[in-house]
Amino acid sequence: MKAPTRQLDVDLAIEFAGIRSPNPFWLASAPPTDKAYNVERAFAAGWGGVVWKTLGEDPPAVNVSSRYSAHFGHNRDVLGFNNIELITDRPLETNLREISEVKQRWPDRALIVSLMVPCVEESWRAILPRVEATGADGIELNLGCPHGMPERGMGAAVGQNPDLIEQVTRWCKTHSRLPVIVKLTPNITDIRAASRAAKLGGADAVSLINTVNSITSVDLDRMIARPIVGHQSTHGGYCGAAVKPIALNMVAEIARDPQSAGLPICGIGGISSWQDAAEFVALGAGAVQVCTAAMLHGFRIVEELQDGLARWMVSKGYRRLADVTGRAVDNTTDWKHLDMNFQTIAHIDQQQCIQCGRCYIACEDTSHQSIAKLAEEDGTRRYEIIEAACVGCNLCQITCPVEGCISMVPQSTGKPFMSWDEDPRNPFRELA
Ligand SMILES: Cc1cc2nc3c(=O)[nH]c(=O)nc-3n(C[C@H](O)[C@H](O)[C@H](O)COP(=O)(O)O)c2cc1C
Ligand code: SF4
Ligand code: SF4
């Protein structure tokens, strides 16, 4: 761990599902963790742990070329990242030897081994002792790979079937003493079905999300989706900043689920800043994993992740990550429990406004026609909120290019809290 966090009198060390780590930042199972060379450089940079790139039975998987594509923003910033890569393409023995060597050289770091073998007990029984012999701290079950492996009855083909999740988890708990983290696929209707199955099977924790089924773009000259392999393409797995909202919701869904209560959660999906990480922790995660941000910006981002998180914790008076874990869960509820009497309306700070008119167009064309466009004597325009019409939808604030120019101001209505179940406008109120 870097010196600054110690000076700040915050302890970022965690124990997650019985696995100790000097900080909560782990690299997710992917190319950054596929060999000793990468993992040792990651540890030297300050990562608290890694989940080694998924191992499988020999012969090793064979990959295609090319493998990645991206969903770009207007300034070529990568909003989302897509891959059609399989699990490790190196021999099992090579990986196991390197895992063993790395663990010996870095005993204080968390080293978890990701696994994916055929969905038969014999395959799991055979590989688990070999992984345990490396000295690794735990295993993560890759039940989520959305491409290539499901066609062979593995990855998401297992993760989309709660009975199989429970079965595979139980085999791992039966044939290994290592903590078992079950990595979940987001390509499922109700993520709670998967976490409940993992818990029933005896899982020590769940991690999520793996990648989301995706096609990022199409080459319209060649009429081939990307990434292009010869003259064809296939769907891949989506990750990076764009999937963070999906992942955050799924983490919260599990954290709120009474049937998954007590199951530690490792948050994954679009984490690229300490704020992202803190948000996952607030919604129930006890550790986080990062892949795309490290692939795009390198291992050194962990310095900023640790430093930013530690400074924020000091500013809020948190000493340990466990003090933050789940803090926002109780404030996350079903729609029907929200306060129907709460009212907020938009306010424009005229000093900051550059009169671009974006808020006006958005509200006029698609919301509640609650912004007036007024002509000033000097020929300029002035935009003003029509407070009586504003429903407080946030659209103008979201479209405004000047941060802080439009604020949403809670109103004192004088009315008490009233949920939809209590609301006289609810035709099913009696039933509720
Ligand atoms: C190129 C690439 C390869 C990946 N390979 C694996 C893998 O072998 N096993 C696995 O469990 N997840 C794999 N993943 C998924 C990541 O571990 C992670 O769950 C996902 O990328 C979401 O995190 P992120 O948004 O930080 O990238 C891979 C992701 C990428 C981009
Ligand atoms: S909050 Fe919504 S309704 Fe109110 S002014 Fe803005 S866009 Fe219009
Ligand atoms: S979008 Fe923002 S800056 Fe532009 S007119 Fe509206 S308040 Fe002013």
From TrEMBL:
* Highest taxon, organism lineage: Bacteria
Which SUPFAM superfamilies does the annotation name?
A: 4Fe-4S ferredoxins, FMN-linked oxidoreductases
EC number annotated for this UniProt entry: 1.3.1.1
**Top EC class of this enzyme:** oxidoreductase
User: Per the database record, which ranges form the 4Fe-4S ferredoxin-type domain?
Assistant: 344-373, 381-411
Q: Name one GO molecular function term.
A: dihydropyrimidine dehydrogenase (NAD+) activity
Does the keyword RNA-binding feature in the UniProt annotation? no
Quote the catalytic activity from the record. 5,6-dihydrothymine + NAD(+) = thymine + NADH + H(+); 5,6-dihydrouracil + NAD(+) = uracil + NADH + H(+)
Q: Which UniProt keywords apply?
A: Iron, Iron-sulfur, Metal-binding, Oxidoreductase
* Function according to Swiss-Prot or TrEMBL: Involved in pyrimidine base degradation. Catalyzes physiologically the reduction of uracil to 5,6-dihydrouracil (DHU) by using NADH as a specific cosubstrate. It also catalyzes the reverse reaction and the reduction of thymine to 5,6-dihydrothymine (DHT).
Classification via PANTHER family: DIHYDROPYRIMIDINE DEHYDROGENASE [NADP(+)]
Q: How does it assemble?
A: Heterotetramer of 2 PreA and 2 PreT subunits.
Protein family according to the UniProt entry: Belongs to the dihydropyrimidine dehydrogenase family.
Tell me the protein's name: dihydrouracil dehydrogenase (NAD(+))
This protein's encoding gene: preA
